[in-house]
Amino acid sequence: MRYGFIYPGSDPEVAVELAELAEEQGWHGFFVWEGIWATDPWSVLAAAAMRTSQIRLGTMLTPVPRRRPWELAGQTMTVDRLSGGRVTLSVGLGVPEDAEDRFWIFEHDPGRRVRAELLDESLELLPKLWRGEPFEHEGPHYTVRRTDTMLPPPPVQPRIPIWAVGLWPRPKSMRRVARLDGWLPNYAPPGDHVLPDVQAALFTPEIGAEAFAWLGAERERLGLADEPFDWVQEGTTAGFDPVADAAVVRPWAEAGATWWLDTDWSVSADRIEQYSRERVAAGPPRVE
Which long-range contacts does 177-182 make (Cβ < 8 Å, 24+ apart)? Predict the structure, then answer.
């Protein structure tokens, strides 16, 4: 298992310092959140790329339907080149307006169906945009006319890994994930109107293992079984007691999760910097 830290704050200088500290303390990944009117994550990650040499860098996560795919392709390519090939892109539909209207102050939510269409078309475009080669595209939301001039360079990685949110057991959502490079679990338990925090509480390692096995079978059907694929599990450990922290993570590792991303989103704004520095300095919750 590999371990990453998600910085829940917004201060770009602190974020860059934390990325450097995370690498020193043995974390394998450092991630920042991406908002709509917020600190620009890719500028932060570009600066972090120049201060680190091994740790993976990425977002948790990018609401791709809110982004122009060609701009996102340019940002991720730039950071990938600055970092020597260490970028991971985490993607999802984004928060709906009826759940958090703070993220919809400039426009109205077109609805889940349209956001899903935008995400799928962007996921089709990104690998083509990363090649830095002429191509054409005509889709329901985007048009790309061929050009042979001013083409950007490709990333260092042959393909920037994409982790996507997959809602288990919804087949359409999970099939999207199966074509990519990693699964960010979301869970839709039986019954209507189950709140997100309750969903997270009901999601267990056993349910995750069932979903991961389904993804493995789907990837085999697609001819992708031999390609690397991650189960990325997010959670919280305190960092005070290595034995207790390992006990939290071990069931997920034994179920098949390949990444553990640690953070505490409930920390108050005035404590985020102190919490983040202390948690990163304590090192990842390793399962021996």
Answer: 177/215, 178/215, 178/218, 178/219, 178/222, 178/224, 179/123, 179/222, 179/224, 180/123, 181/227, 181/228, 181/229, 181/230, 182/88, 182/229, 182/230, 182/231, 182/232, 182/258, 182/259
How many Å from the N-terminal Cα to the C-terminal Cα in the chain?
A: 10
Number of C-beta neighbours around residue 238 at 10 A: 14
Kindly report the average pLDDT of the chain as a whole number. Answer: 96
Mention every residue, 6+ apart, whose C-beta is less than 8 A from residue 244. 237, 238
* pLDDT of 203 higher than 70: yes
DSSP string, 24-83: HTT-SEEEE---SSS--HHHHHHHHHHH-SSSEEEES-EEGGGS-HHHHHHHHHHHHHHH
Contact present, 73 and 89 (Cβ < 8 Å): no
pLDDT 10s digits, 236-267: 999 999 999 999 999 999 999 999 999 999 99
Q: How far apart are CA 233 and CA 60, in angstroms?
A: 12
Is 132 in a helix, a strand, or coil? coil
Report CA-CA distances (Å) from 8 to 34, 45, 78.
Answer: 10, 14, 23
